[in-house]
Amino acid sequence: VQLQASGGGLVQAGGSLRLSCAASGRTFSSDTMGWFRQAPGKEREFVAAISWSGGTTNVATSVKGRFTIARDNTKNMVYLQMNSLKPEDTAVYYCAGKSGSWRDARPEGYVYWGQGTQVTVSS
Fold first, then answer.
1. 43, 60, 73, 78: most buried by Cβ count inside 10 Å?
2. Model pLDDT for residues 104-113, shown as the tens digit of each residue
3. How would DSSP label each residue in 25-79?
């Protein structure tokens, strides 16, 4: 599966962005999909994951109540709606997929990755 992330940009604190991740190559409808982010000088961290059906989501504590993950299997798309953005949300955001459980938030469990999209939040 190939993933293409888009939707990043520069936004002021308190603003919103919606990231999109388009999957191609084969259907991903049976896979767990996730979003991760990596800020300069920091390790890649888990942001959110969604089960294959979209019925279950897992969101990192740092973004809970502000970020929402969703998917549309008919369009092979995954989304990350980001509201009330803060400067500390500034990072490159990656979408990723795997066949394993949404409960495991470790990045090393994800098999395929997109190229990343930059999100910059100004104060």
1. 78
2. 899 999 999 9
3. SS--TTSEEEEEEE-TTS--EEEEEE-TTSS-EEE-GGGTTTEEEEEETTTTEEE
